[in-house]
Amino acid sequence: MTVNKDSWVKTINLPAPSLQDNTADSDRLINFLKQHLHAHRIFIDYYSLQELPFKLRAWDYGLRCVVIKDPYFDQWYLAGISDPLKDRCFAGVAVDLGTSRVALRLVDLSSGKSLYETSFDNPQLKVGPDILTRVHACDQPGGLQELTQSIIREMNQQIRAACHVCGLENTDLYFMTLAGNTCMTHLFMGLAPKWIIREPYIPVTNTPDVERAAVYGLDINPAGRIFIFPNIGSYFGGDLIAGILHSKLNQGKDPAILVDVGTNAEVVLGNDSWLMACAGAAGPALEGGVTQIGMMAGPGVVDRVRIGPEPHTIHVRTIDDLPPVGICGSGMIDLAAQLFKVGMIDLRGRFVPDACGQKLHDQADMPFLEVVSAKESGTGRALNIYQADLDSLVRSKAAMYTILETITESVGLSLDELNTFYVAGTFGAYIDPKSAVTIGMLPDLPEGTYKSLGNSSLEGAAQVLTSCESLNRIEQIKTQITYLELNVNQQFMNRFSAAKFLPHTDLSRFPSILHDNSTISS
Amino acid sequence: MTVNKDSWVKTINLPAPSLQDNTADSDRLINFLKQHLHAHRIFIDYYSLQELPFKLRAWDYGLRCVVIKDPYFDQWYLAGISDPLKDRCFAGVAVDLGTSRVALRLVDLSSGKSLYETSFDNPQLKVGPDILTRVHACDQPGGLQELTQSIIREMNQQIRAACHVCGLENTDLYFMTLAGNTCMTHLFMGLAPKWIIREPYIPVTNTPDVERAAVYGLDINPAGRIFIFPNIGSYFGGDLIAGILHSKLNQGKDPAILVDVGTNAEVVLGNDSWLMACAGAAGPALEGGVTQIGMMAGPGVVDRVRIGPEPHTIHVRTIDDLPPVGICGSGMIDLAAQLFKVGMIDLRGRFVPDACGQKLHDQADMPFLEVVSAKESGTGRALNIYQADLDSLVRSKAAMYTILETITESVGLSLDELNTFYVAGTFGAYIDPKSAVTIGMLPDLPEGTYKSLGNSSLEGAAQVLTSCESLNRIEQIKTQITYLELNVNQQFMNRFSAAKFLPHTDLSRFPSILHDNSTISS
Lengths: 522, 522
Description:
Two copies of one chain form a homodimer. Among the domains of chain A are: 9-82, Ubiquitin-like (UB roll); 91-234, Domain of unknown function (DUF4445) (Nucleotidyltransferase, domain 5, 2-Layer Sandwich), CATH 3.30.420.480; 285-393, no CATH class. The first copy, chain A, has helices at 25-37, 46-58, 131-137, 143-166, 182-189, 238-247, 329-341, 353-356, 387-410, 425-430, 433-438, 456-466, 469-480, 490-499, 511-516; strands spanning 9-13, 41-44, 62-70, 75-82, 91-97, 101-108, 114-121, 173-180, 211-212, 225-228, 256-261, 265-270, 275-280, 301-307, 314-318, 326-327, 360-363, 366-372, 383-386, 421-424, 450-454, 481-483. In chain A, a hairpin with a 3-residue loop joins strand 11 (256-261) and strand 12 (265-270). Chain A has a six-stranded mixed β-sheet, with helices on both faces. The first copy, chain A, is 32% helix and 23% strand. Chain A is α/β, with parallel strands linked by helices.
């Protein structure tokens, strides 16, 4: 066997058959692998079985093989074999299946080296931008099939293109891992998501089997397997489990927290002996498409805002330095933080006319502020931020803070006891924690406490491609986790109301903001 | 659960989900079945998974389902579900995959009732009548694929036709069981048989997995499974294991013997604590196509012969009472026994000219006997039996007797200690044991000791369709069996030489023949 015990790729040498030892080829291989992997059962895929007798003899009973463990049972699948004397690439593909974007990465299963990475729009966006629209589309005849086929088709095309770039065939892919939320996973598998969104919120499956990828119509090696991250329930998907895996949240002694903001804010708190998770609607104002000028991070999108002293000139930075076309969630947070710092909005998030000056306008009794003029904008139209957008942002940040406060207190901790605060996803990659603290969305912890995890779902999926052990970690995460139902009771509402101020009613919680910002008055 | 614990069909009622118990549909079903089947793992086929959420709700969490156990591991496969309030037929199909003939039977999995039975020529006959020709055909490019496709295609057509007769769809079939010799099984599965026939005689697999039938291109329910009987080696196939299962050889206290005669004579001896098996070339003279007038049992084929007192008129009985066209193995044995009884052949199997009279002719120094005249024959030509045919028959019967003697003595028994002697296959169905004893092919045991098993391979396959327990029996058979290599040493040759007389050199072994036949002289 190879030295790297954690790799799915093993090199083995079988004893050759004889009249005294005339076990069949596959049973010979099975018996050997059983012993060496300490496994109860080895399943040799039919497709591998067909070539096995020829290859065993051609390679003198030596083999490099990909064996993939079933995490739910003591069973391994033989997915591929190759000549042990040739350095053929066994590749795998990790996928983060997002509602809006899908990211995929090709990985060399032996070396663990990343070969190529790409991302693309989820083609289901054409049917509906959000989960609910897509779930409802499944009520139409053929609706589910259409959604499933569109993502599988696009995935196959992207995989083929990725393989082409790396000089690989799609049949060189023997293992695929996929992390997504519960609904996206169901739509991918062709399983009805109907009851996920209806009380009592029941998925078709919590733990998809390690199936042949071909079962789902995926064009990788016919014996290649797919591991779809398990979900813990309707609102706690495989993407978050992949994120926990990547963050190693459950491997440290000190409690740490992980936040992933999308349509929902998903929060996990814990250490190596316990994990507490919850999710709540905290993100709408931070997602593209909600505010008039809001959009997902992309070229020309404002991701940083700085406002100078009077006359409060607004400086924006855009992705790729292109003329501004919109603003993403992290840009919104930056903007709100800056507006608040210079006093252009007050502690309730309302425009302060004196400070805003000529930039403040009014449209049908709705005040708005011109952030970028029509002349400077990339769209030819001014980019305006409305009072309603700010109100929505304040509600979102209040919800987020309340969720963080609630989950932390549920385990008897306070927020300032957290030494590590992971922020995942695109949001985590672009956000300036200082700004999020300024508006009281995130607690006032020392800089350096906040760590951006990048695409933790993709990273977690990629980790499974190169580490047998990671499957055990996932099982561990599943058993450790307790899901905290956010009861919207009086206490929650009280906390929420208190958090609806910038940064908070209780200013003592935000000493660094109090110190920075002379304009704050209680 | 249903009362019939041995059936693969179970009726269950799941607890309905609630906010307090929001496990996913499939995991709910899995957990329930695990507990009730005492199983480690339940595998819900992807195809069942797709319909599961709709059906569970439509049927108020009640289900009739087909669950099939993996005999090699503590795992069950859910192959099909139906409304517990409707009496829909879950059907299965059992197949005896013979080198020449294939027999199949449709069975109701719940009631165990046989629905339909048919048999057809193995379409691989077109490539070659015997195993060796077919194995060699696989050395040509595409040869294996052609053989595999021909049997799968024919099987699908026959299954569809059989379903049509029973008013079923092919998707009503959820379980298929198949028993065949090791080569036929490999050709069916598309696995190279090349090394089965070459020292050290290695099959690709001894234990085919309980796969989805669709993997082999079989047109039954897409979630339907196929159980292919395991083999113990190149010369001990699944058909014989199915025969042992049907005979219940391994369930009695008294040792019994099972003989299956085809190209090889396959012999199993044993009881509930041990089984001894061996195989040897004993059948050539008994198979169709070997003697000039020999053929497989079928319409117009001679299966019984009686010879009157002088002038020794030969009376033949044919299948379906048609004009005679040939003679099958059991007919040959009957003919030889009758010729011997009336003194037309001597104890070495040679024609006795005086007794044969005008029926004896000569052709290029090869004596032959006219059994049926051209006028009475169904072919317009006389049916003749040559001295060479008789010589060949004598060698075959001697080999058979020697094998029986050898295997029995190997366990310290003598042939007359056997109370039950099963004769399987077409041979078993047509043979007159008395005639086989007369020529010394089978030992001289009391009438009633010999029992025809019919198509024991098909019966064994059908048994698995309706009995969970039978899979355990098969595993038991596999572990109990010891394979006796027939060493063709001096002792074997001595025994063989002694058995080349009719009935045997040692006449004391055949007291009933000695008593019957006044013409015998030592």
